Amino acid sequence: MTRRRKVRGAIVAALSVALVGGGVYTAAALLQKSERLITEGCVAAVGSQQAELATDQAANAALVAAISVRRGLPPRAASIALATAMQESKLRNIDHGDLAGPDSRGLFQQRPSQGWGSTEQVMDPHYATNAFYDALVKVQGYEGMDVTEAAQRVQRSAYPRAYAQHEAMGRSFASALSGQTHAALDCTLRSPEHAGDPAAFLGELQAQYGSLPASATGQTLVLEAADDLAWSLAHWAVANAKEFAVVQVDVDGMSWNRQARNGWQESAGSGGTVTVTFAEAPAG
To answer: Hey, where are the domains in the chain?
Structure first.
């Protein structure tokens, strides 16, 4: 082989490596760009009715619904609570009030000066939600009331009619998150940026639902539950998938996959358990 031919071969090899490396870099860049273009959010679809929430709102909605399930309340209670929290705080745990209630705080904008508890307590979503339900269940016949009337009996708002505009959202998310409607909640999310923590996930789940039979193996958590409770737990996992780096949820022969972004699909799973799979640690 002549010296010129050897040099030419080396150049071709170097160019090939550069092209391959450039291709990998370009593919990675395009993937990162496509991830950034994804609009994250959650949708609850019940019959012909559909409602949307941001991911942080959906996580708070899941908490409100989970506590109603734990207390054995009907989905109507969660509908009223969700519509109320949306009107009061946009379903966010805010640390300020308004001109009508300068000391209002939390999901339900409860006022310490009106006997709802301390500022620290009403800023705790678990406490605030239970306090709302404590007041709601004292309203005789609330299950048959319009959302506006039931919410006003609890909140004593200066704008009682405002709750009605959130009734459809409250009903859709309550039906999905209580498990009354199956395969109804879907969240579109970017890829996880960190590994999931099954223990942290289970700790928060049980803080909201109470003790549940569960077992973990590696990055997989199995919850023992059936029927509506199983679907409530599964939808809770989807609503909290962003925070806890959940990548897949399997329940009752259906599967939600974060990467596929195609909602609930039929799978080979069986009933009696909810399987939650978490992201592994990112490579490198």
So the answer is: 43-177, 191-278
Backbone angles phi, psi at 267, to 5 degrees: -140, -175
* For residue 23, pLDDT beyond 70: no
Question: Who's near 261: CB < 8 A, 6+ residues apart?
Answer: 38, 188, 189
**Single-letter residue type at 2:** T
Arithmetic mean of pLDDT, 90-116: 89
Q: Are 108 and 84 spatial neighbours (Cβ–Cβ below 8 Å)?
A: yes
Burial state string for 103-132 with b = 16 or more CB within 10 A and e = fewer than 16: ebbbbbbbbeeeebbeeebbbbbebbbebb
Amino acid 238 reads V
Alpha helices in the chain, H assignment, sequence order: 3-37, 55-70, 75-89, 119-122, 125-136, 147-155, 167-177, 198-209, 227-239, 241-244
Running DSSP on this structure, what letter comes out for residue 54?
Answer: -
3-class DSSP state of 247: strand
Half-sphere exposure of 32 (CA within 13 A, CB side): 7
Cα–Cα distances (Å) from 279 to 185, 249, 257, in that order, read 20, 12, 12
Which of 22, 62, 56, 24 lies closest to 41, judged by CA? 56
Q: HSE of 20 in the Cβ direction (CA atoms, 13 Å)?
A: 6
- What are 73's two structure tokens? 């309340």
What strand order describes the sheet that includes 246-251?
214-217, 220-224, 273-278, 246-251, 254-257, 264-266
Query: Tokens representing 280?
Result: 């592994």
pTM of the model: 0.86
Question: What does the pLDDT average to over 109-131?
Answer: 95
Kindly give, in sequence order, each residue whose CB lies less than 8 Å from that of residue 257, ignoring residues fewer than 6 positions away. 247, 248, 265
> What is the number of alpha carbons within 13 Å of residue 183 lying toward its C-beta?
14
- How many Å apart are CA 275 and CA 260, to the nearest integer? 17
185 sits in the region (left: phi over 0; alpha: psi -120 to 50; else beta) called beta
